[in-house]
User: Which sequence fits this backbone?
């Protein structure tokens, strides 16, 4: 039978062990917090060292979009878990001002017998914004914190712990100016289901999420000093993409960094409804013309000997067989998951009536594009119906289905 002194000793030992365990937990949490802070600091340096660092040369095109990507190396066998984590993240991306398009892309090959390069990233998040200001507002706002651990340090730590089981090394961000964009308006009736600004997709972490689009990219290394000529050649090309079934959007990406770590300072990115739409384009005459197999743009619409002579000259990528390219382009193909549109990217028009200073202002239509580059910022235009204010036009910013129109400014009406 235990004596009172032995019981007291056992209690003392138990209490001491509890204190030691508590101290160990505190030290462990402090180390984890310090590690998380270092990761956050490093991530911010990665962002800040690249975003906005490109200086344009004379003759280069002004950006019309801003594109943010994050590249991942997902461990073999962890792909479904990685996709599940994306499907369950807290995000209200579709509700953010200036957001246009998103998809998480899984790298694939066109030939099933071909293997991916293990040194390349096999997943990429791809987000298109109206402009850099909209991207910056997201990155520095609450929505960014919510999507990266809920805005708390421990939430971020939890996300890091989850990443260690799925990723090989940290993600690598890359940012681009979007030039020469081509976009098809989206049909609201076929829009994917969105709840609270994010996709409502069920993922079990065992099976891959079904693809919702197909993305074809061509990566280019353009010689220094030749960037403006390269851009102008692309801008002057005739495009028939909007006439092709299954086409979603295109943008030429110009890396927003003076010296990209992979050397690719331009990337053409085309989103298709599915792989079949992409294959149909590849087997079409449009593909042959665009890639020099039928003389390119020079032979289009020409007849007789002049057209035949032009057809003998291979067009290839803009600039000829190599032109300003340092090496042949490097293609990359992806299956897009969790596709998301911002406000349906202005896919519909609507007539609305609002109140302005006690007077009714009729807003005629909402343009297909909510916003574009600052020089062509799209607003909703209406005229005050009161005689006292008939000499003024009123401009509004209207976000369909989510917010009431917001008055931007009034200007004297042109006679």
Assistant:
């Amino acid at each position: 039978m235990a004596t009172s002194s032995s019981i007291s000793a056992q209690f003392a030992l138990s209490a001491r062990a509890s204190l030691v365990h508590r101290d160990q937990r505190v030290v462990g949490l402090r180390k984890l917090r310090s590690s998380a802070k270092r990761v956050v600091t490093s991530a911010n340096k990665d962002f800040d060292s690249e975003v906005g660092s490109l200086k344009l040369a004379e003759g280069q095109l002004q950006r019309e979009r801003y594109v943010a990507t994050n590249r991942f190396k997902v461990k073999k066998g962890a792909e479904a878990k990685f996709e599940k984590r994306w499907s369950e993240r807290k995000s209200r991306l579709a509700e953010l001002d200036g957001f246009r398009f998103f998809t998480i892309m899984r790298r694939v090959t066109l030939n099933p017998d071909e293997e991916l390069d293990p040194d390349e990233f096999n997943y990429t998040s791809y987000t298109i914004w109206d402009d850099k200001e909209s991207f910056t507002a997201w990155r520095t706002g609450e929505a960014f914190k919510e999507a990266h651990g809920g805005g708390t340090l421990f939430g971020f730590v939890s996300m890091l712990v989850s990443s260690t089981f799925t990723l090989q090394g940290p993600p690598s961000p890359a940012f681009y100016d979007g030039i020469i964009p081509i976009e098809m308006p989206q049909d609201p009736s076929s829009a994917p289901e969105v709840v609270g600004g994010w996709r409502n997709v069920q993922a079990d972490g065992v099976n891959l999420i079904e693809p919702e689009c197909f993305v074809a990219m061509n990566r280019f290394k353009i010689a220094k000093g030749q960037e403006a000529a390269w851009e102008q050649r692309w801008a002057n090309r005739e495009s028939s993409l909007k006439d092709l079934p299954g086409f979603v959007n295109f943008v030429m990406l110009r890396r927003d960094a003076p010296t990209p770590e992979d050397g690719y300072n331009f990337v053409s990115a085309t989103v298709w409804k599915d792989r079949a739409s992409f294959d149909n384009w590849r087997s079409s005459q449009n593909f042959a013309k665009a890639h020099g197999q039928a003389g390119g743009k020079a032979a289009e619409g020409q007849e007789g000997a002049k057209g035949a002579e032009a057809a003998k000259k291979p067009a290839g990528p803009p600039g000829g067989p190599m032109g300003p390219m340092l090496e042949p382009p490097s293609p990359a193909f992806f299956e897009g998951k969790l596709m998301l549109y911002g406000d349906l990217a202005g896919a519909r028009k609507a007539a609305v009536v609002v109140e302005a200073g006690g007077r009714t202002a009729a807003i005629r239509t909402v343009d297909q594009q909510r916003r574009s580059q600052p020089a062509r910022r799209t607003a909703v235009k209406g005229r005050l119906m009161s005689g006292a204010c008939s000499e003024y036009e009123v401009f509004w910013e209207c976000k369909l289905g989510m917010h009431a129109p917001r008055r931007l400014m009034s200007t004297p009406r042109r006679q």
In short: The first strand starts at residue 65 and ends at 72.
